[in-house]
Amino acid sequence: MDPFSGATSGGATPQMSTEDFMDQLKTQLAQAYAEEFLETVRGKCFDKCITKPGSSLGGSESSCISRCVDRYIEATGIISRALFSSQR
Questions:
Q1: pLDDT tens across 14-70, in order?
Q2: Most buried pick, 12, 39, 47, 67, via CB within 10 A?
Q3: Which one-letter DSSP state was computed for residue 11?
């Protein structure tokens, strides 16, 4: 499929507007970012907090994961704000 025309290789689909294309691209980028974010948090927090994997989380493991995720979200927000404010 040609992402710029919206047509598939075998059909005569009307062209996709630039606005629609940009909306679709933003959605795909947001989804990719969210997936990467979750994978990173999952990997880092799991490695840090889960010492003995089992069928359930212990109290200390659960609170460790909560703190880890909160810190990661906070750090990501700080970095994002710094990057976006320096671009202006």
A1: 688 899 989 899 899 889 988 988 898 889 999 999 988 889 988 999 999 999 999
A2: 67
A3: -
Tokens of 5: 């025309």
User: Which band of pLDDT confidence, cut at 50, 70 and 90, is reported for residue 80?
Assistant: confident
- Could you tell me the pTM of the whole model? 0.59
**Angle at the Cα of 24 (from 23 to 26), degrees rounded to 5?**
65
Cα distances (Å, whole numbers) of residue 77 to 5, 12, 47, 60 = 36, 44, 22, 26
What pLDDT sits at residue 30? 87
Query: Can you tell me the distance from the alpha carbon of 11 to that of 9, in angstroms, rounded to the nearest whole number?
Result: 6
Backbone angles phi, psi at 45, to 5 degrees: -70, -35
DSSP one-letter code for 88: -
